[in-house]
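PROTEIN–LIGAND DATA SHEET

This sheet pairs a single protein chain with one bound small molecule, adenosine-5'-diphosphate, given as SMILES. Inputs appear in the order they were entered. The predicted three-dimensional arrangement of chain and ligand is reported afterwards as a token string under its own label.
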Amino acid sequence: MKQVVTCQEMKFCDSYTIERMGVPSCVLMERAALKVVEELEKRFAGEYKKQKILCVCGSGNNGGDGVAIARILHQHGCQSTIYLAGNPDHRTEEMQRQCQIAANYQVPVVNNLHSEEYTTIVDAIFGVGLTREIKGEYRDLIAELNEMSGWKVAVDLPSGVDGDTGAELGIAFHADLTVTFAFRKAGLCLYPGRKLAGQVIVADVGIYREDGAEPKLFSMEKSDLRELPEKEADGNKGTFGKILAVAGSSGMCGAAFLSASGAFATGVGMVKIVTPEENRIPLQTMLPEAMISCTDDLEKDFDWCDVLVIGPGIGMTVKAADKVQFFLKKAKQEKKPVVLDADGLNLLAENPKWKNYLDSHVILTPHMGEMSRLTGKSIRELKSDRAGAARALAAETGAVCVLKDACTVTAAPDGRAWISLSGNAGMATAGSGDVLSGVLAGMQAMYPETPVEEKDTGFYAALGVLLHGAGGDQAAVRKGMAGMKAGDIACGVAEILKEQQNF
Ligand SMILES: NC(=O)C1=CN([C@@H]2O[C@H](COP(=O)(O)OP(=O)(O)OC[C@H]3O[C@@H](n4cnc5c(N)ncnc54)[C@H](OP(=O)(O)O)[C@@H]3O)[C@@H](O)[C@H]2O)[C@@H](O)CC1
Ligand SMILES: Nc1ncnc2c1ncn2[C@@H]1O[C@H](COP(=O)(O)OP(=O)(O)O)[C@@H](O)[C@H]1O
Ligand SMILES: [K+]
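PREDICTION REPORTED AS:
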């Protein structure tokens, strides 16, 4: 789990390091430039003298980094050239100083982008100081750079990417590599910024957070799977958790199957599916390991389980609504963990009073459409600030919100949020959300002894999202992004856990 920052937080860290700790700004800039040069030279290997590098620099400190990069490369014997964009009168003090040093070293400056063919283009136009949509000359410049051939490297952020939301502000540089400083910016984790950045390297340049400052935003990467617990050698099917999946309706038994498969993949002890009678035979045929309950003795089913999944494929009938309400109400009374998914969420949107049944024991797993129904906001608005949207729903309901998308954000009611960096486009296939609901329930069941109020439900939900994405990546390796189906993601989850737990 790594800290992720917004632009404002990054600026705060900069000024804390410079003003409070006394590290001169030019020292930080030199370190930042050296880190970028280090990455460039790794790629150039022994052939760096053959490289022709164009550093395109804006008038702020991001431009200052670019000028320093060109100068260091020049000193190392590379053919590096500076292109200065923007109004010289708007240059920051650091940028002016870098221009002066580069002039002292006689680093070439060009006024024409096409005076040569370049092997590498370094984008140092805007970093965390981008504040508005890019228009006019800057827009034309970035469009031209995108048309040019050569390896594209962005300094701190691809110019045009909103460092907070990942949105493209009018236009953005298309990078193959982004070297970002101190912390990954949120906009490098969220699409389209994540795609525009290419590979991301986070470089330590000596800028840190103030001691005691509490980070609120994190990225979850595959290495974080080591946080998953070991399976107790002396456990039994009772201690490994009992999941009740309230799922499936007429013609929708697949959702119940996939949700239960997701839960089994995490290693839970038992799964029981509460579903209409007509689903009994297909479900028992497909998944004989699961128990099937088609009676109306919901009380008994509730008492049996440790964790509930409510909603996959359940439909929007009155009967489904009664079931969902019954289980939500009981779970609130007895503080049993709940994953509320799919039509469970659509029913919640139609019955806003049910929000009273929500609290920290509940994980809501809306995709963008369901989130739009729940909040009344348009998908466009939600996509423009995914972390903000997830946090707002978590704060309003007191539940954990897993806002599913190509980059899923999990938010806890206390304001913490986690962005998952696992998963791939092959997961955009019917039923993969159903698998996630089971995986999330499985994660909550891994600690049946811990009372729900002592569990870090948000963190384990985020870990479940990461695991589901890693399972999807595994499925893509085996079946290909086009060929993989939701069931392959459940198999992938099991394989990832096998690797992780050495069995
Ligand atoms: N602090 C430090 O010592 C360190 C900082 N570091 C580096 O500094 C970067 C931050 O530098 P920064 O704060 O100067 O902002 P930066 O990203 O260069 O952009 C500001 C310029 O862009 C302009 N501008 C903005 N939007 C615009 C638009 N749409 N269209 C046109 N113009 C627009 C804006 O103009 P204005 O809004 O003032 O008119 C201003 O001139 C950071 O990302 C990292 O690379 C590292 O070296 C480590 C040490
Ligand atoms: N492009 C993508 N990259 C990574 N993960 C994705 C992508 N598209 C979808 N997913 C994941 O797949 C799942 C889809 O869930 P959902 O939309 O509920 O599907 P369904 O309703 O068919 O089960 C979510 O976990 C989502 O994060
Ligand atoms: K940049």
